[in-house]
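lol ok so funny story. i was supposed to be doing the assay writeup but got distracted and ended up predicting the structure for this chain instead. priorities right. anyway since i did it might as well share w the group, maybe its usefull for someone
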Amino acid sequence: MNKIEGKVIQVLSPMEIVINRGSSHGITGESKFIVFEMGAEIKDPDSGESLGQLEIVKGKAEAKHVQEKMSTLRSFERKKVPRDRQRPVSSDLPSSSFVGFPRFETVTEEVEVSAPFVDVKEGDLVRAL
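and the output, tada:
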């Protein structure tokens, strides 16, 4: 695939964006992208030589809906977050005690959830992965 580059033209939600590239630019339903903005110029501390501009990554996305000149992309990154759940606790009390009132304890587990883009806005850049 050729190197597809474009811009975010609309933010639909924290998880979905629209870009100004579509099937006429080579995007397919399997295309994946990095979403970023250009940061400050970085210089080598020893030589003072410019190393270029830092790319501030906002997320990674895949094509969800491709039209001729624009595409809707959805974040495909995942992150782990703590989530509490209740689990039954076996009791040392005789079975006749507290009949019908099971005891529970709260357990915190890490689960994977979809990660939204980070501060994505119109004008941010996209490049095919």
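Residues 5-40+52-81+115-128 form a domain with the Thrombin, subunit H fold (CATH 2.40.10.410). The two ends are 10 Å apart (CA to CA).
back to the writeup now i swear
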